[in-house]
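Sequence, please.
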């Protein structure tokens, strides 16, 4: 059998030179190879954040059953060369959305069989690293000869995908909508603070703080303070901030507090964690010596809350202690978001 190392396959309508001549002679359908995005498109746009992936579907069929597919590789169109080392190719989907502009998703068959699909996930941190990619398949005949199918000549249908790379986004407090409420319940106050992205995108992977304090599986303590003794009454004011894990829907939660003798649970309130940074901020009433800091005399503080959007762009929300105003004598038991 003649082996063609660099011959090019015309997708679904092969050129007169077949890379699998024995299958053609036996009357089988011609082998075929295609490359598309997971949305079924010939182009996609991703952010240069190293997280967002261009998800590509390679489909091949009519490979003779006695042939072995040895390798499938994404390459640069027209040059047949490997991708630059600024690109990372993975076989794993990291879960971020794959196309900035796509509104509807086609549903390719990801199961093996005839045709057979293989998935590739491409990402980069280089803005402007636009590239057109193709696919090359290498198979071995029963005699051990290596034969190649390729879409890299650019003359085939459904064989090339153009990837446009745009600068990543970096979010701060100016990119967030803030909403919430605050109410007193006997001798403690609870504020429900919720931040969502102004651009309407999802918020994922909220964190950046240790989650080993007062973690009930839904939220955990990220800051707690004990104010200095008031110069007139000698009483202290206590505060605490809890960060909720994102995208668990609306969850009900209560918190621990004490008036100095017995620890109790606060009123249970609802917190919406969907696509949001969600926090509960507690203050105790000083004249009743209400401890809302479950660590009692131990104060902790996490100054930066991190998050990502559904495309893998990263953001930061800073949390700092402050006082309640120029006449406040309690010290840093209140909080600013910036």
């Amino acid at each position: 059998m003649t082996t063609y190392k660099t011959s090019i396959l015309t997708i679904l309508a092969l050129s007169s030179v077949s890379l699998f001549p024995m299958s053609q002679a036996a009357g089988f359908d011609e082998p075929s190879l295609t490359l598309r995005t997971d949305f079924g498109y010939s182009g996609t746009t991703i952010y240069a954040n190293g997280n967002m992936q261009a998800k590509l579907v390679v489909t091949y069929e009519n490979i003779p059953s006695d042939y072995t597919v040895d390798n499938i590789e994404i390459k640069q169109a027209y040059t047949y060369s490997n991708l630059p080392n600024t690109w990372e190719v993975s076989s794993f989907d990291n879960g971020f959305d794959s196309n900035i502009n796509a509104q509807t998703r086609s549903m390719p068959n990801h199961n093996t069989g005839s045709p057979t699909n293989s998935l590739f996930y491409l990402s980069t941190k280089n803005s402007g690293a636009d590239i057109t990619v193709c696919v090359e398949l290498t198979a071995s005949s029963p005699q051990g000869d290596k034969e190649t199918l390729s879409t890299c000549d650019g003359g085939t249908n459904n064989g090339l995908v153009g990837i446009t790379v745009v600068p990543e986004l970096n979010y701060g407090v100016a990119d967030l909508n803030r909403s919430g409420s605050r109410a007193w319940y006997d001798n403690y106050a609870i504020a429900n603070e919720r931040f969502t992205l102004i651009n309407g995108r999802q918020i994922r992977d909220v964190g950046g703080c240790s989650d080993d304090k007062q973690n009930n599986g839904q939220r955990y303590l990220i800051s707690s303070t004990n104010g200095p003794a008031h110069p007139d009454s000698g009483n202290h004011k206590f505060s605490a901030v809890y960060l909720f894990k994102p995208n668990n829907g609306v969850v009900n939660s209560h918190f621990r507090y004490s008036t100095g003798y017995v620890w109790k649970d606060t009123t249970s309130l609802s917190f919406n964690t969907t696509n949001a940074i969600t926090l509960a901020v507690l203050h105790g009433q000083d004249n009743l010596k209400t401890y809302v800091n479950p660590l009692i005399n131990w104060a902790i503080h996490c100054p930066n809350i991190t998050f990502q959007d559904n495309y893998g762009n990263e953001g930061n929300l800073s949390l700092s202690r402050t006082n309640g105003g120029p006449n406040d004598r309690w010290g840093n038991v209140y909080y600013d978001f910036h």
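Residues 259 and 290 are 4 Å apart (CA to CA).
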